[in-house]
Amino acid sequence: MLEKGMDDQDFFTHALGIQPPWEIKEVRVDLEAQRVTVEVECVQRVWADPETQQRLHLHGSEPRSWRHLDMMQFETVIEARVPRLKYPDGHTELLPTPWAAPHSRHSFFLKHGPSRYFAPAARSKMAASCSGSNGTPLTGSWSAPWNEGWPDARSKS
Predict the structure, then answer these.
(1) Overall pTM > 0.85
(2) Number of domains in the chain
(3) How remote is the C-alpha of 115 from its chain's centroid?
């Protein structure tokens, strides 16, 4: 729940679902370009291989950016330097980010849209049948349903 007096970093932490080891470092708003850039950083510095529990070394980082769903009609971009971890066998991997799939340029919310988080609205049979969204082709005139008299609040007793 959002609290009174919340600053922009707290707001975007909640809005984007940022969780440790990630934190919002900075939020930049460009009013002229209508763009919000949210810079996220990984604050954890020590990692272990989940299988062997051996310590992994940080092997640099890679600057990445992801397009997110617009917020308040502003283009929203998430930026981060993603740590590269070096495993005991010598191979390296980028640390996974919780807001996007590996190699993706879009956040989960933009890619999958609100449907991933919200149930679909109930379908209206009358609207579906008039628009052809029930799989049947559109026939007749667009004004036919209006001329035939759709039920409205006045006809209900």
Answers:
(1) no
(2) 1
(3) 11
